[in-house]
Amino acid sequence: MISSSTTRTQGNCSEISNSTFLCICDDGWQGIHCESMINFCHNVTCENKGVCRSLLLNYRCECLGNNYYGHHCEFTSKKIITYKIVSTSFAYIAIIALIIVAMFIIIMNILKYCFGIDSTQEDSKRYRREKQARKRKHPVIERFVYVNAPPQISK
Q: What residues have CB less than 8 Å from 62, skipping those under 6 apart?
C-alpha cells in the first residue's frame, strides 16, 4: 500500500510491489515523492548583478533598479551609458589640466635655472622694497588733547 506520506499533489505515485512504488512527477517537479520544484536557475547567469528567480516551468532574471533590462539583464539603459561617457570625459579633462599645470611649472623652472630668465624677479624686488620701507618707518608719537579738560596747575 502507498502511504499518504508518499503521495504528493505534484505527481501520481503507483505501487509496484508491497515495498516499492513509482512516482511520475508533474512538469516542473522532481524527487522520489515529487517533493521539490526543479531549479531552472541552476545553469543560468543573470548579468549586471541581476537575481534569478525560479518559476514553475521557467525562470526570470530580476534586474536591480531601472538601469538594466532584458531576459538576462544584459542590456544597459541609455542613462547609464550617458553617465559613463560623461564621467570618462571629465576624467580626461582633469588629466589634461594636471599635465598642463605640471608642464607650466617645469617650463618656468627651465627658464629660471637654465636660461636665467625669472619672470617674477621684478615682482619679488618690488615686494622686498615695500617690506623694507615699512620696517624703516619710525613710529609716530601723538599727543592727545582732551576737550573740556581741567586746566593744569603748574608749580
A: 46, 50, 51, 52, 53
pTM for the model stands at 0.48
Question: What does the DSSP 8-state code read for residue 144?
Answer: -
Helices (H), the chain: 78-113, 121-136
In this structure, what CATH number is given to the domain that contains residue 63? 2.10.25.10
Q: Is 45 contained in some domain? A: yes
Q: For the chain, what is the domain count?
A: 3
pLDDT for the residue numbered 102: 98
The per-residue b/e assignment along 117-145, b for 16 or more CB within 10 angstroms, e otherwise, is: eeeeeeeeeeeeeeeeeeeeeeeeeeeee
The whole domain housing 49 covers 40-76
**58 falls within a domain:** yes
DSSP type of residue 102 = H
- 86-143 pLDDT tens trace: 999 999 999 999 999 999 999 999 998 898 888 888 888 898 988 888 777 677 788 8
pLDDT, tens digit, for every residue of 56-88? 888 999 998 889 999 999 999 999 899 999 999
